[in-house]
């Protein structure tokens, strides 16, 4: 029987752990030190409370009410055959100034011919136009940012996610459509003299 032929194994090296491997204790310690240094450098920004707030009561709210209208609110108002300005006055028993931001107008224009009636309503001369200085045309972020800066608005929306975001901001009432009429949520009792109100 012949002798077995020996074949040299190429590239055979002793297995070593990478010096940058996180399983090494010195690397773990280094990562922990870096994280603590990063946390120490971070500045905590605390939002200043508005001077118009008396606990949860917003003293800046009062007639004439300025109401920021969301994109879907106009569509739902048309579906429910509501004349927006008159319905708002019936709900609040006071003069109302509907406000439309540039983002809401841009969203309505993007939606195409199906929503041309909503766009026509938004261009009503009784509606106040609010200019936007930020980038992009996402109306929800624009509305939330605006009410955080100025707590003198009521927000009219039927969007569940936007309502959830607005509820985190104290002193900002929400107007929505229920049973073919407008309703308002979180308006102080002293101001809501007659309109249908909802508590959350």
What this model shows, in words?
This protein is an alpha/beta fold and 200 residues long. It has 7 helices and 9 strands, in the order αβββααβααβαβαβββ. The strands form 2 sheets. The protein has a 7-stranded mixed sheet, sandwiched between helices. Strands 1-2 form a two-stranded antiparallel sheet. The longest helix has 17 residues, at 25-41.
Work out the radius of gyration: 29 Å
Overall residue-averaged pLDDT value: 84
Q: Profile the largest sheet.
A: 7 strands, mixed
Number of strands: 9
* Spatial strand sequence of the major β-sheet: 5-4-3-6-7-8-9
Computed structural class: alpha/beta
The stretches of 5 or more residues where confidence is low (pLDDT under 50) are none
Label the overall shape. Answer: elongated
In terms of quaternary structure, the protein is single chain
Kindly estimate the percentage of residues that lie in beta strands according to DSSP: 15-25%
Order of helices and strands: HEEEHHEHHEHEHEEE
| Overall helicity | 25-40%
Q: Tell me the number of helical segments per DSSP (H or I, 4 or more residues long).
A: 7
Report, as a whole number of angstroms, the end-to-end distance: 93 Å
